[in-house]
Automatic annotation (TrEMBL):
<dbReference type="InterPro" id="IPR001309">
    <property type="entry name" value="Pept_C14_p20"/>
</dbReference>
<keyword id="KW-0802">TPR repeat</keyword>
<dbReference type="InterPro" id="IPR011990">
    <property type="entry name" value="TPR-like_helical_dom_sf"/>
</dbReference>
<feature type="region of interest" description="Disordered">
    <location>
        <begin position="251"/>
        <end position="270"/>
    </location>
</feature>
<dbReference type="GO" id="GO:0006508">
    <property type="term" value="P:proteolysis"/>
</dbReference>
<feature type="signal peptide">
    <location>
        <begin position="1"/>
        <end position="27"/>
    </location>
</feature>
<dbReference type="InterPro" id="IPR011600">
    <property type="entry name" value="Pept_C14_caspase"/>
</dbReference>
<dbReference type="Pfam" id="PF00656">
    <property type="entry name" value="Peptidase_C14"/>
</dbReference>
<dbReference type="GO" id="GO:0004197">
    <property type="term" value="F:cysteine-type endopeptidase activity"/>
</dbReference>
<protein>
    <recommendedName>
        <fullName>Caspase family p20 domain-containing protein</fullName>
    </recommendedName>
</protein>
<dbReference type="InterPro" id="IPR019734">
    <property type="entry name" value="TPR_rpt"/>
</dbReference>
<keyword id="KW-0732">Signal</keyword>
<feature type="repeat" description="TPR">
    <location>
        <begin position="377"/>
        <end position="410"/>
    </location>
</feature>
<dbReference type="InterPro" id="IPR029030">
    <property type="entry name" value="Caspase-like_dom_sf"/>
</dbReference>
<dbReference type="InterPro" id="IPR052039">
    <property type="entry name" value="Caspase-related_regulators"/>
</dbReference>
<feature type="domain" description="Caspase family p20">
    <location>
        <begin position="27"/>
        <end position="99"/>
    </location>
</feature>
Length: 456
């Protein structure tokens, strides 16, 4: 290519960028804001969700967006809200979705969950959830020139633990061109949650959205870096961009620019984890269990049909998650008497026994589960805990390693292997740090099993 032709092509590209920026500034701007705070299966209301979605809605309106804000949507209501959103998208529009609540990844996709999701097995996720990939694809099909998804849903949730022993976080979005996607935490990781009135992620996001004279992509990059700094690198939002058109939340940019900013923060210096003492949570009271809507529903089904083994197994899982171990054991005993070769039930009883200190009984259950299903990674993880509590550190390391080979994202297996390595005289710091980055509450979870990070 000659020098003249190269210069002409660059001038043409610059002209297209100017035109694109102008059209983006003039295009219709539509937003759907969903805040799901009241999940009946969760032990407390996500107080920050209602406040954060209100603040995001007000900011988007100031930025010229037409906003549909919806709270605590069932699956039917969420489907209707999305259909209304799609129907309003005009060709060339800027379309944005903000979701605050619970989400789960399954089969390498992220699913946003309505408040009435009924999830007990992984296939239930695709049935009851809404695929973010599909939402972005539909926004593109309807003609949106710029697609933006802001997802504050990287939380531990009450559903995921029912079918996997770890929090898998969210999966990367497969987004169409000219899209911008931001998650509140890294892929495969969850952010530390609590009963707060406002979320750090949204606070950083709002501050950057209001900043003048920067592109939307730079605003989200700054949001990511702000969260990283505020949490001392414990929470690292995930950002993906395929934008080819400049767009700014706070108004038109002063001049077109192809400078995107540095979307990758400086790599953190390697940290040597400090041994921390975590206190186990107290088990729930009988009144707390009686008020739990999931337990109440399952108990009604069992009372109506004493042969309902599926409901009995599910209730045992809920009891175990809530640390009502004696009640969980009763349900698992019934399930195993009905089918002595139910490997999943044997694994759950193994895990429950390990948590209560019946280590020999737990070892028997785990060994039998693995005889029936040698590739059952959850049973390997459970047996690793048993061996760890028995002081058989070499066996624990092997079990945890085998579990990690089958499931590299298991924070439980990584943390357990780190502890076993440390007790064997090794370091274990990398495994422990990786586990905490995936699940900030993992040390507290192990404390509930009677295993302290600071055990000699």
């Amino acid at each position: 290519m000659s020098h003249f032709m190269r210069a002409a092509k660059m001038l043409l590209l610059a002209g297209l960028l100017v035109l694109g920026a102008s059209r983006a500034a003039d295009a219709a701007k539509l937003a759907l804001v969903i805040g799901n705070a009241r999940y009946p299966d969760n032990e407390f209301v996500l107080n920050d969700v209602a406040n954060d979605t209100q603040d995001v809605t007000e900011e988007l309106k100031r930025d010229g967006f037409t906003v549909d804000r919806q709270n605590n949507l069932t699956a039917d209501a969420m489907r209707q809200a999305l259909d209304r959103f799609y129907a309003r998208i005009e060709r060339g529009a800027v379309a944005l979705i903000f979701f605050d609540g619970f989400a789960i990844q399954s089969n390498r996709q992220t699913y946003l969950l309505p408040v009435d999701a009924q999830i007990w097995t992984e296939p239930d996720v695709a049935r009851d959830g809404f695929s973010l990939d599909s939402i972005l694809a539909e926004m593109n099909t309807r003609g949106a020139a710029i697609k933006i998804a802001l997802i504050d849903a990287s939380r531990r949730n009450p559903f995921e633990r029912r079918f996997r022993r770890y929090s898998a976080g969210l999966a990367p979005a497969i987004a169409p061109s000219n899209s911008l996607v931001l998650y509140s935490a890294a892929l495969g990781a969850v952010a530390a949650g609590g009963k707060t009135d406002h979320g750090l992620f949204v606070a950083e996001l709002l501050r950057e959205m209001r900043a003048p004279n920067i592109s939307a992509e730079q605003a989200l990059t700054n949001t990511k870096n702000g969260v990283v700094a505020a949490t001392k690198r414990e929470q690292v939002p995930w950002l993906s961009s395929s934008l080819t058109t400049e767009f700014s939340f706070a108004g038109p940019l002063p001049q077109p620019s192809d400078h995107k900013g540095d979307a990758t923060p400086a790599k953190p210096e390697q940290q040597i984890p400090v041994c921390e003492t975590s206190r186990a949570e107290l088990p729930p009271s009988a009144d707390d269990l009686a008020r739990d809507p999931v337990i109440a529903d399952l108990s009604r089904k069992i009372a109506a049909n004493t042969n309902d083994i599926v409901s009995r197994y599910k209730r045992g899982q809920v009891y175990a998650i809530k640390r009502a171990h004696a009640l969980a054991m009763q349900d698992f005993d019934v399930v195993i008497r009905r089918d002595p070769r139910d490997a999943q039930a044997l694994n759950n009883r193994c895990w429950t026994r390990a948590a209560t200190g019946d280590l020999q009984g737990a070892l028997t259950d785990c060994n039998l589960a693995l005889q029936i299903d040698p590739g059952l990674s959850d049973a390997l993880d459970s047996r690793g805990l048993v061996n760890l509590k028995l002081g058989r550190n070499a066996e624990a390391i092997k079990d945890y390693t085998d579990a990690i080979q089958r499931n590299p994202r298991s924070s439980s297996s990584l943390f357990g292997r780190g502890i076993a390595t440390r007790k064997s005289g090794g370091d274990g710091a990398t495994d422990i740090a990786s586990a905490k980055s995936m699940n900030p509450d993992i040390a507290k979870e192990f404390a509930g099993y009677g295993v302290s990070e600071c055990m000699p």
